[in-house]
TrEMBL record:
Keyword list, A-Z: ATP-binding, Coenzyme A biosynthesis, Cytoplasm, Kinase, Metal-binding, Nucleotide-binding, Potassium, Transferase
Annotated active site: 109 (proton acceptor)
Single GO BP term: coenzyme A biosynthetic process
Subunit structure: Homodimer.
A Gene Ontology term for the protein's cellular component: cytoplasm
Originating species: Caproicibacterium amylolyticum
Binding site residues for ATP: 6-13, 132
Cofactor: K(+); NH4(+)
Homology family: Belongs to the type III pantothenate kinase family.
Protein's recorded name: Type III pantothenate kinase
PANTHER family named in the record: TYPE III PANTOTHENATE KINASE
Highest taxon of the lineage: Bacteria
Free-text cofactor note: A monovalent cation. Ammonium or potassium.
Residues involved in substrate binding: 107-110, 184
Length: 258
């Protein structure tokens, strides 16, 4: 089994898995102020909590959109398991044909999502990863990563309203009973949830029109379940997409154990 770690701007998702089983997953708050020792303690406690032997870990891999945490988490994994974690970067073998202006600038999270989706779903594929940002990745019918979009996520949108409009307060991302809100908080929630869902539906329509083909649509990320539930397009919700992609990349790049 391996440790797979996905570092996002808001949360860190950690999974302990192999090709047959996912032994546990956990979600931690992303905090650049935490030291490697603090993260090591958290990781060790997760193994204890879930009754898994940390000494049975054969390796690890980290994908991070927060560069400042890559090395501390790599050191934390070493302290817990004695293994040096791979870090997803342009130097890793991915098998992904990235057809963008500068392939090296493609985010690690988008690379991992694409690797997993290509292994599991029919092409072409649209991948929506919904977290702090909502990203869209487009894989064409030949399996090439041809580009995508980056949009503010629904929680970011809510926070921006509260921070910039003096009469609007901070609210949680909950789905109101009706799209047409009847109080300020429900109006904000409706805009974030139904508005984001309508945006996703519209983006799918326009992307399929530009591509000239119907696509398999996959969604992942922390807020994806809330948004996908209100979308009108058929969207596959895959909350394990990132961890599955990290497992694939680990096997592509790990040195054989002698």
């Amino acid at each position: 089994m391996i440790i797979a770690i996905d570092v996002g701007n808001t949360n860190i998702v950690l999974g302990c898995l192999d090709s047959e089983h996912t032994y546990f997953t956990a979600r931690l708050s992303t905090d650049v102020k935490k030291t490697s020792d603090e993260y090591a303690l958290m990781i060790r406690n997760l193994f204890h909590l879930h009754g898994r032997d940390r000494h049975g870990v054969e390796g690890a891999i980290i994908s991070s959109v927060v560069p400042a945490l890559s090395v501390p988490l790599q050191e934390a994994v070493r302290l817990v398991t004695g293994k040096v974690a791979l870090i997803v970067s342009s130097g890793l073998k991915t098998g992904l044909n990235i057809r963008m202006d500068n392939p090296a600038t493609l985010g690690a999270d988008l690379v991992v999502d694409a690797v997993a989706a290509l292994a599991e779903y029919p092409k072409p594929i649209f991948i929506f990863d919904m977290g702090t940002a909502t990203t869209m990745s487009v894989i064409d019918e030949k399996g090439g990563y041809i580009g995508g979009m980056i949009m503010p996520g629904p929680v970011v949108s809510l926070n921006a309203l509260a921070n910039n409009a003096s009469q609007l307060a901070h609210v949680d991302l909950d789905t109101p009973e009706k799209m047409i809100g009847q109080n300020t908080k429900d109006c904000m929630r409706s805009g974030a949830v139904y508005g984001h869902a309508a945006m996703i539906d519209g983006v799918i329509d326009r992307a399929e029109e530009e591509l000239g083909l119907h696509a398999t649509v996959v969604a992942t990320g922390g807020v994806a379940p809330v948004i996908v539930a209100q979308c009108r397009h058929k969207i596959i919700l895959d909350d394990m997409l990132m961890l599955k992609g990290l497992l694939i990349l680990y096997h592509k790049n790990a040195k054989p154990v002698k």
